[in-house]
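ugh ok so i messed up the first submission bc i forgot one of the chains. this is the corrected input, ALL of the components this time, i swear. 633 residues overall. if the numbers dont match what u have on ur side tell me asap before i send this to the collaborators (the ones from the other lab, u know who)
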Amino acid sequence: MTETSRREVLKGAAGAVALAPGLTLIAAPADARAPGMPATPANRWGLLIDTRKCDAGCTACVDACKTEMGLTGHHRPLTDAQYLRKVNVKDPASGKAHSVPVMCQHCAKPPCVDVCPTGASMKRADGIVLVDRHICIGCRYCMMACPYKARSFAHEEQTNQREANPRGKGCVEACTLCAHRVDAGQSPACVEACAAAGHAAMLFGDLNDPGSELARRVAAEASTRIRADLGVEPAVRYQGI
Amino acid sequence: MKRVTYTELPALTTGWLALMGSLLAVVAVALGSVLYMEHEGHWVTGMTNQVVWGMPHVFAIFLIVAASGALNVASIGSVFGREPYQPLGRLSGLLAMALLAGGLAVLVLDLGRPDRLAVAMTHFNFKSIFAWNVILYSGFFAVVGFYLWAMMDWKMKGAYKGAALAAFVWRLILTTGTGSIFGFLVARDAYNSAVMAPLFIAMSFAFGLAAFILVVMGAYAGSGRPVAPDLVTRMGRLLGLFCAANLYFVAVQHLTALYMAERTGVEAFILAGGGLYTVLFWGVQVALGGLVPMSIVFSKGATRCSVRFAAILVMIGGLAQVYVILIGGQAFPLTLFPGMEVSSSFQDGQVSAYAPSLPEVLLGLGGFAITLLITVVGATFLRILPDSLAAE
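and heres the new structure output, hopefully the right one now
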């Protein structure tokens, strides 16, 4: 099988995911990256989140994130890690309320990467912002710098770790946009869970691919970015706020 | 100018042993605290995912800022040619290095991974002011160490002026770097301002001189050497000027922010409705740490004793100032959705509570002990202190 045809097969596999008998999610397929191939700036992975479809009482995305990343809480809300949270936003003038999932916004100009003294905070070529846990010294300057409060500090010894998300006491961590799933041609766990819950409020895709649904919708519909005024160019866009 | 004789502090006297023993005990307790915090993880401290820098950073930043300020006495004598300060140049250089070492020790020991210090010394992201500070702090030891050598070795006399100027410029850049840790934080309403760099320089002038006055008076009282009252009151008046400079930049910092509609929230928090932070700001930082010492040192009846009291107040006010900047600035919530009411399970939209834990405070006090330990050892084995600071 040639490289191209293998990708096509993976595309097809990622496109149709059997969630339960009789229920099939048709998600935008993403290219799986072949082993050994580096991430490329040809991709710019991103999200479009429609808060009008997001149910304030639903935590499917948050729960899926915790399961996928092995985030075991200790019932200590001030120090437990949260890669993804639902923020309740209410306009005091109109009373209009939204529930907004907020995670690492995978900025094109990430302040966390700028301030990191060792280079542990880094941006992959495809725009995914990660923490290299091998050289993170736990200074937390990135947490001070992040405009989205997207990062957590591993405040204690970690157990029940997932292979895709090795965690270490004393290091900073955050949403990886499920890089391990993206590399395998899948959508992030939160996106998949949102669709499975019947809301489909989150759309994942390649902003650099004009043919992707994400790029088409971003080009055709109004969307906004949280704190767009800071100029850090997040890859996560929102509708309805 | 009269010839100045420098002599070492006598070692192994009862007082010396008691002092060294006490300082070592404090350092041992601080190291025990570090072991506890690092073993358990940071959840046992008061620090959280909201207030990520806590009491150790208050102490560390205070000491690092004071370090560059403590060097001013040497600079005033050498770069600016003020003779009364020249005999104190050696102590100024030694104390500056000791304060920096104490501050850095606290900073490093609070890292999530202090065992990776070597990583910080070998991996540099040159866009990070933190990485630059690693270089600036290391360089400070080299530059001030050389300056101290030039002051102490007559054969190095030719290098004295150049070393003095280099150290003065280096210390200004260093404090600019420390202030810019906050100045460069684009997303935090309490920071993100160019004024943080000159503010930190003004702070360093005041804190450093206050620390220096206390060390001089302590060392001379402890070793039974004379100090001219005039010298102390002169340093006191200089401390008053530095307090005024600090208050000026504090005023600029807050007036500038008050002018920006988007920052009225954080300003109202710090200046009016922030509870402890507001009390610390007006009561301790501005009044006790600024206005009161100024009124003491500029009064006609200022004595050695009152100057010492003023210096202690400046130190306390300085710690309060760093606390308000650091903890108060983090306690105020990040603005993700301007103009909106927000809440979440991650404390969005809430003022974050922070209660310093005992181990954090003990680690911070360990920084002070390390500073004094280095100073005493330095003055014991090197000719740092003039025999007499009595008037001619």
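quick check: Chain A touches chain B through 58 residues (CB under 8 Å). that seems consistent at least. The domain at 40-239 of chain A is CATH 3.30.70.20 (Alpha-Beta Plaits).
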